[in-house]
């Protein structure tokens, strides 16, 4: 439904966003709990991001036709607890994955859990995975978080695509996102034309980039809309404005929390 960013841009952003994550956690307490992922410490979060990069990179490098077990991914976890080792491991994983993606090009066929089985899917997925987890790391380390508007918008687009895919695949939570006559409108106040309309029907939901009257509307800076939609910022935060049926937005957020 949307046009992703250029493949080379995603490759660059995997490295750049990981550098930002490394900066955010540099000198922080790696045993601190991540508020938005309370089952993780800051170290756990960093290892999750770096492991995901290396896993996707190995899928691309080997042109895998099926899901790879973690044990088949070289250096899937860092060697020891030294923060310097973790930092170097994160940097090397991001660089290696970006290199594999550039070499493969966006159209190379590989396994994925999504309907798009291409290297281009993984370039986008790893970029936007890092966008969201950089927010987690920044919150835990108590450092500022900002995101480029096109990446924030792409993160919303991709998440809507993933939830729609989950509904089509029969995910029980996503299956409940239905019911005629209800809708959600996201309206960025700082970026022109950054608006989304999610409409519920009897058979599921559809979405499009559009302005429209809705059952509930969420207005605010684009990055904050993205954070709310990814459950990283509470919808009643004073950084956004919620108009209409707040329970409908809660209903969406509660049933799009898988993964």
TrEMBL record:
Q: What is this protein called?
A: Maleylpyruvate isomerase family mycothiol-dependent enzyme
Q: Mycothiol-dependent maleylpyruvate isomerase metal-binding domain spans which residues?
A: 18-137
Q: Which InterPro entries match?
A: Maleyloyr_isom, MDMPI_C-term_domain, MDMPI_metal-binding
Organism name: Streptomyces poriferorum
PANTHER family assigned? CONSERVED PROTEIN
| Superkingdom classification of source | Bacteria
Q: Pfam families from the xrefs?
A: MDMPI_C (PF07398), MDMPI_N (PF11716)
In alphabetical order, the GO MF annotations are:
isomerase activity
Keywords, A to Z, come to:
Isomerase
> Which residue numbers delimit the MDMPI C-terminal domain?
150-250
């Amino acid at each position: 439904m949307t046009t992703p960013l250029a493949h080379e841009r995603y490759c660059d952003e995997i490295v750049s966003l990981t550098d930002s994550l490394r900066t955010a956690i540099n000198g922080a307490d790696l045993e601190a709990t991540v508020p938005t992922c309370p089952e993780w410490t800051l170290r756990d979060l960093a290892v999750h991001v770096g492991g995901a990069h290396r896993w996707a990179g190995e899928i691309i490098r080997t042109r895998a036709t099926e899901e790879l077990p973690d044990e088949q991914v070289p250096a899937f976890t860092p060697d020891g607890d030294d923060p310097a080792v973790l930092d170097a491991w994160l940097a090397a994983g991001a660089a290696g994955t970006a290199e594999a993606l550039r070499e493969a090009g966006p159209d190379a066929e590989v396994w994925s859990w999504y309907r798009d089985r291409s290297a281009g899917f993984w370039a986008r997925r790893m970029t936007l995975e890092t966008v969201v987890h950089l927010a987690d790391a920044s919150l835990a380390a108590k450092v500022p978080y900002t995101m480029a508007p096109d990446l924030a918008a792409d993160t919303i687009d991709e998440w809507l695509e993933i939830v729609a895919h989950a509904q089509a695949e029969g995910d029980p939570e996503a299956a409940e996102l239905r019911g005629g006559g209800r809708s959600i409108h996201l309206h960025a106040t700082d970026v022109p034309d950054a608006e989304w309309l999610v409409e519920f029907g009897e058979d599921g939901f559809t979405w499009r980039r559009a302005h429209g009257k809705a059952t509930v509307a969420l207005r605010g800076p684009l990055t904050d809309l993205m954070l709310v939609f990814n459950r990283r910022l509470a919808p009643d935060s004073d950084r956004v404005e919620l108009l209409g049926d707040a329970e409908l937005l809660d209903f969406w957020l509660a049933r799009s929390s898988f993964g």
